[in-house]
Design a protein that fits this description.
This protein has 289 residues and is an alpha/beta fold. It has 12 helices and 10 strands.
Protein backbone atom coordinates (compact mmCIF):
# COMPACT_ATOMS: atom_id res chain seq x y z
CA UNK A 1 0.00 0.00 0.00
CA UNK A 2 1.37 3.42 -0.97
CA UNK A 3 1.52 6.34 1.47
CA UNK A 4 -1.33 8.04 -0.35
CA UNK A 5 -3.53 4.95 -0.19
CA UNK A 6 -2.73 4.59 3.51
CA UNK A 7 -3.75 8.19 4.22
CA UNK A 8 -7.06 7.58 2.46
CA UNK A 9 -8.00 4.43 4.38
CA UNK A 10 -10.08 6.57 6.73
CA UNK A 11 -11.97 8.14 3.84
CA UNK A 12 -12.02 11.44 1.98
CA UNK A 13 -9.57 14.09 3.20
CA UNK A 14 -10.11 17.85 3.44
CA UNK A 15 -7.42 20.08 1.98
CA UNK A 16 -6.95 23.82 2.47
CA UNK A 17 -8.09 26.97 0.67
CA UNK A 18 -6.60 29.91 -1.20
CA UNK A 19 -3.18 31.25 -0.29
CA UNK A 20 -2.62 34.33 -2.45
CA UNK A 21 -5.65 36.25 -1.24
CA UNK A 22 -4.95 35.29 2.37
CA UNK A 23 -1.41 36.66 2.04
CA UNK A 24 -2.78 39.82 0.45
CA UNK A 25 -4.97 40.31 3.52
CA UNK A 26 -1.75 40.17 5.53
CA UNK A 27 -0.07 42.87 3.46
CA UNK A 28 1.36 41.17 0.38
CA UNK A 29 1.73 44.01 -2.16
CA UNK A 30 0.26 43.65 -5.64
CA UNK A 31 2.93 42.39 -8.05
CA UNK A 32 5.03 40.73 -5.37
CA UNK A 33 5.71 37.02 -5.88
CA UNK A 34 4.10 35.40 -2.82
CA UNK A 35 6.83 32.75 -2.57
CA UNK A 36 9.41 35.40 -1.66
CA UNK A 37 7.58 35.99 1.62
CA UNK A 38 8.84 32.61 2.84
CA UNK A 39 12.15 34.40 3.45
CA UNK A 40 11.03 37.95 4.21
CA UNK A 41 7.75 37.45 6.15
CA UNK A 42 7.68 33.82 7.30
CA UNK A 43 5.48 34.62 10.29
CA UNK A 44 2.68 35.90 8.03
CA UNK A 45 2.91 32.86 5.77
CA UNK A 46 2.74 30.65 8.85
CA UNK A 47 -0.46 32.44 9.88
CA UNK A 48 -2.13 31.20 6.68
CA UNK A 49 -1.10 27.59 7.26
CA UNK A 50 -2.24 27.87 10.88
CA UNK A 51 -5.59 29.35 9.94
CA UNK A 52 -6.35 26.45 7.61
CA UNK A 53 -5.18 23.88 10.16
CA UNK A 54 -7.40 25.48 12.79
CA UNK A 55 -10.31 25.39 10.33
CA UNK A 56 -9.87 21.63 9.97
CA UNK A 57 -7.64 21.09 6.94
CA UNK A 58 -6.11 17.62 7.04
CA UNK A 59 -3.79 18.59 4.19
CA UNK A 60 -2.05 21.96 3.99
CA UNK A 61 -0.09 23.17 0.97
CA UNK A 62 3.06 25.27 0.83
CA UNK A 63 3.70 28.80 -0.42
CA UNK A 64 5.93 27.55 -3.25
CA UNK A 65 3.66 27.72 -6.31
CA UNK A 66 6.08 29.83 -8.39
CA UNK A 67 9.39 28.76 -6.86
CA UNK A 68 10.99 27.18 -9.93
CA UNK A 69 13.88 28.47 -12.04
CA UNK A 70 11.72 29.30 -15.07
CA UNK A 71 8.87 31.15 -13.34
CA UNK A 72 11.27 32.95 -10.97
CA UNK A 73 14.16 33.36 -13.39
CA UNK A 74 15.62 36.34 -11.50
CA UNK A 75 16.23 34.23 -8.40
CA UNK A 76 19.45 32.31 -7.85
CA UNK A 77 19.58 28.56 -7.39
CA UNK A 78 20.44 29.06 -3.72
CA UNK A 79 17.54 31.48 -3.21
CA UNK A 80 15.04 29.11 -4.84
CA UNK A 81 16.28 26.26 -2.69
CA UNK A 82 15.87 28.41 0.41
CA UNK A 83 12.35 29.52 -0.60
CA UNK A 84 11.21 25.95 -1.20
CA UNK A 85 12.74 24.54 1.98
CA UNK A 86 11.32 27.41 4.02
CA UNK A 87 7.89 26.86 2.46
CA UNK A 88 7.74 23.31 3.79
CA UNK A 89 9.10 24.27 7.20
CA UNK A 90 6.63 27.15 7.56
CA UNK A 91 3.59 25.02 6.71
CA UNK A 92 4.84 22.31 9.06
CA UNK A 93 5.11 24.81 11.92
CA UNK A 94 1.72 26.31 11.20
CA UNK A 95 -0.06 22.99 10.69
CA UNK A 96 1.85 20.34 12.68
CA UNK A 97 -1.02 17.83 12.65
CA UNK A 98 -1.68 18.08 8.90
CA UNK A 99 -0.03 16.36 5.95
CA UNK A 100 2.08 18.86 4.04
CA UNK A 101 1.63 18.65 0.27
CA UNK A 102 4.20 20.89 -1.39
CA UNK A 103 2.92 23.04 -4.25
CA UNK A 104 4.61 22.97 -7.67
CA UNK A 105 2.94 25.32 -10.15
CA UNK A 106 3.48 25.75 -13.89
CA UNK A 107 6.45 27.60 -15.38
CA UNK A 108 4.29 30.22 -17.04
CA UNK A 109 5.93 29.46 -20.39
CA UNK A 110 4.48 27.59 -23.37
CA UNK A 111 6.50 24.61 -24.51
CA UNK A 112 5.04 24.40 -28.01
CA UNK A 113 5.91 28.05 -28.72
CA UNK A 114 9.60 27.49 -28.04
CA UNK A 115 9.65 29.97 -25.14
CA UNK A 116 11.37 27.29 -23.09
CA UNK A 117 12.80 23.85 -23.78
CA UNK A 118 11.71 20.54 -22.28
CA UNK A 119 15.17 20.21 -20.75
CA UNK A 120 14.87 23.57 -19.00
CA UNK A 121 11.42 22.72 -17.69
CA UNK A 122 12.50 19.29 -16.44
CA UNK A 123 15.58 20.71 -14.72
CA UNK A 124 13.54 23.45 -13.04
CA UNK A 125 10.93 21.04 -11.72
CA UNK A 126 13.54 18.51 -10.62
CA UNK A 127 15.44 21.10 -8.60
CA UNK A 128 12.27 22.36 -6.93
CA UNK A 129 11.04 18.85 -6.16
CA UNK A 130 14.39 17.93 -4.57
CA UNK A 131 14.33 20.97 -2.32
CA UNK A 132 10.75 20.30 -1.23
CA UNK A 133 11.43 16.62 -0.58
CA UNK A 134 14.62 17.28 1.38
CA UNK A 135 12.70 19.76 3.53
CA UNK A 136 10.32 16.98 4.57
CA UNK A 137 7.18 17.38 2.45
CA UNK A 138 4.76 14.44 2.68
CA UNK A 139 3.76 14.63 -0.99
CA UNK A 140 4.21 16.86 -4.03
CA UNK A 141 1.29 18.59 -5.75
CA UNK A 142 1.81 19.54 -9.39
CA UNK A 143 -1.08 21.98 -9.71
CA UNK A 144 -2.96 24.40 -11.96
CA UNK A 145 -1.58 22.79 -15.09
CA UNK A 146 -3.05 23.31 -18.56
CA UNK A 147 -0.48 21.60 -20.78
CA UNK A 148 -0.32 17.81 -20.54
CA UNK A 149 3.31 17.74 -21.70
CA UNK A 150 4.45 20.25 -19.07
CA UNK A 151 2.57 18.28 -16.40
CA UNK A 152 4.15 15.06 -17.61
CA UNK A 153 7.63 16.59 -17.28
CA UNK A 154 6.78 17.84 -13.80
CA UNK A 155 5.43 14.48 -12.66
CA UNK A 156 8.46 12.59 -14.01
CA UNK A 157 10.81 15.03 -12.27
CA UNK A 158 8.90 14.97 -8.99
CA UNK A 159 8.66 11.19 -8.91
CA UNK A 160 12.44 10.97 -8.67
CA UNK A 161 12.14 12.07 -5.04
CA UNK A 162 10.18 8.95 -4.14
CA UNK A 163 7.29 10.98 -2.75
CA UNK A 164 3.67 10.58 -3.92
CA UNK A 165 2.95 13.03 -6.75
CA UNK A 166 -0.50 14.46 -7.48
CA UNK A 167 -1.18 16.11 -10.86
CA UNK A 168 -3.98 18.69 -10.91
CA UNK A 169 -5.24 20.70 -13.90
CA UNK A 170 -7.24 23.91 -14.32
CA UNK A 171 -10.33 23.28 -16.47
CA UNK A 172 -11.57 26.71 -17.50
CA UNK A 173 -11.95 26.70 -21.29
CA UNK A 174 -14.25 25.47 -24.02
CA UNK A 175 -18.01 25.84 -24.40
CA UNK A 176 -18.71 23.90 -21.21
CA UNK A 177 -15.60 25.04 -19.30
CA UNK A 178 -14.45 21.40 -19.23
CA UNK A 179 -11.13 21.75 -21.04
CA UNK A 180 -7.82 23.23 -20.03
CA UNK A 181 -6.49 26.36 -21.72
CA UNK A 182 -4.51 24.04 -24.00
CA UNK A 183 -7.63 22.05 -24.91
CA UNK A 184 -7.09 18.94 -22.77
CA UNK A 185 -10.19 17.07 -21.59
CA UNK A 186 -10.56 15.34 -18.21
CA UNK A 187 -10.27 11.98 -19.98
CA UNK A 188 -7.03 12.95 -21.75
CA UNK A 189 -5.58 14.32 -18.53
CA UNK A 190 -6.51 11.23 -16.52
CA UNK A 191 -5.01 8.87 -19.09
CA UNK A 192 -1.78 10.85 -19.49
CA UNK A 193 -1.18 11.34 -15.77
CA UNK A 194 -1.93 7.69 -15.00
CA UNK A 195 0.65 6.70 -17.62
CA UNK A 196 3.12 9.24 -16.19
CA UNK A 197 2.94 7.55 -12.80
CA UNK A 198 1.03 10.13 -10.80
CA UNK A 199 -0.37 8.88 -7.50
CA UNK A 200 -3.56 10.95 -7.95
CA UNK A 201 -5.04 13.28 -10.54
CA UNK A 202 -7.48 16.13 -10.25
CA UNK A 203 -8.79 19.61 -10.92
CA UNK A 204 -8.11 22.88 -9.16
CA UNK A 205 -8.72 26.57 -9.80
CA UNK A 206 -10.47 27.21 -13.13
CA UNK A 207 -14.17 27.14 -12.26
CA UNK A 208 -16.53 27.15 -9.30
CA UNK A 209 -17.68 24.15 -7.33
CA UNK A 210 -20.88 23.48 -9.27
CA UNK A 211 -19.01 23.21 -12.57
CA UNK A 212 -16.29 20.95 -11.18
CA UNK A 213 -18.68 18.19 -10.11
CA UNK A 214 -19.07 16.74 -13.65
CA UNK A 215 -15.32 17.17 -14.22
CA UNK A 216 -14.67 15.16 -11.07
CA UNK A 217 -17.07 12.47 -12.28
CA UNK A 218 -15.31 12.26 -15.65
CA UNK A 219 -11.86 12.08 -14.09
CA UNK A 220 -13.02 9.32 -11.75
CA UNK A 221 -14.52 7.34 -14.64
CA UNK A 222 -11.30 7.60 -16.64
CA UNK A 223 -8.80 6.38 -14.03
CA UNK A 224 -8.50 4.22 -10.93
CA UNK A 225 -6.35 6.89 -9.26
CA UNK A 226 -7.65 8.96 -6.32
CA UNK A 227 -9.17 12.29 -7.40
CA UNK A 228 -8.00 15.66 -6.07
CA UNK A 229 -10.59 18.48 -6.25
CA UNK A 230 -10.00 22.12 -5.28
CA UNK A 231 -12.34 24.49 -7.19
CA UNK A 232 -12.54 28.26 -6.99
CA UNK A 233 -14.96 30.15 -4.79
CA UNK A 234 -17.08 30.96 -7.83
CA UNK A 235 -16.27 33.55 -10.48
CA UNK A 236 -14.52 36.80 -9.54
CA UNK A 237 -15.82 40.31 -10.05
CA UNK A 238 -13.54 43.34 -10.03
CA UNK A 239 -14.16 46.30 -7.74
CA UNK A 240 -11.40 48.76 -8.50
CA UNK A 241 -8.19 46.81 -7.92
CA UNK A 242 -9.89 44.20 -5.73
CA UNK A 243 -11.26 40.83 -6.79
CA UNK A 244 -14.46 39.63 -5.14
CA UNK A 245 -15.75 36.07 -5.41
CA UNK A 246 -19.46 35.35 -5.56
CA UNK A 247 -19.69 32.04 -3.71
CA UNK A 248 -20.40 31.73 0.00
CA UNK A 249 -18.83 29.00 2.17
CA UNK A 250 -22.28 27.51 2.70
CA UNK A 251 -23.04 27.27 -1.04
CA UNK A 252 -19.60 25.78 -1.68
CA UNK A 253 -20.01 23.15 1.04
CA UNK A 254 -23.52 22.29 -0.16
CA UNK A 255 -21.81 20.49 -3.06
CA UNK A 256 -19.68 18.30 -0.79
CA UNK A 257 -21.87 15.22 -1.11
CA UNK A 258 -21.98 15.60 -4.89
CA UNK A 259 -18.19 15.75 -5.05
CA UNK A 260 -17.85 12.74 -2.75
CA UNK A 261 -20.36 10.76 -4.80
CA UNK A 262 -18.58 11.82 -8.02
CA UNK A 263 -15.44 10.11 -6.76
CA UNK A 264 -13.39 12.80 -5.01
CA UNK A 265 -10.80 11.54 -2.53
CA UNK A 266 -9.54 15.01 -1.58
CA UNK A 267 -11.66 18.16 -1.41
CA UNK A 268 -10.48 21.69 -0.77
CA UNK A 269 -11.04 25.17 -2.16
CA UNK A 270 -8.98 27.42 -4.40
CA UNK A 271 -8.99 31.09 -5.47
CA UNK A 272 -11.19 33.39 -3.41
CA UNK A 273 -11.75 30.92 -0.60
CA UNK A 274 -10.96 31.45 3.08
CA UNK A 275 -10.69 29.30 6.22
CA UNK A 276 -14.48 29.68 6.50
CA UNK A 277 -14.83 27.54 3.36
CA UNK A 278 -12.79 24.80 5.02
CA UNK A 279 -14.85 24.96 8.20
CA UNK A 280 -17.98 24.59 6.07
CA UNK A 281 -16.51 21.57 4.25
CA UNK A 282 -15.52 19.95 7.54
CA UNK A 283 -19.06 20.48 8.85
CA UNK A 284 -20.51 18.98 5.68
CA UNK A 285 -18.22 15.96 5.97
CA UNK A 286 -18.84 15.30 9.66
CA UNK A 287 -21.89 13.09 10.29
CA UNK A 288 -24.52 14.56 12.59
CA UNK A 289 -24.71 12.48 15.78
Amino acid sequence: MSSLEEWLTGGLLISDGAWGTELQKRGLPSGTVPDSWNLTHPERVEQVAGAYAEAGSQIVLTNTFRANAVAMNQASEAELDAINRAGVAISRRGAPQARIFASIGPTGKVLVSGEVTSEQVSAAFAAQARSLALAGADALLVETMSDIEEARLAVHAARQTGLPVIASFAFDSGKNKDRTMMGATPEAVAEAMTEAGAAAVGANCGVGVERVVPICRRLHAATALPIWIKPNAGLPTIDGATLHYETSPEFFASHFEQLRDAGASFVGACCGSTPAFIRALVKAKTPIT
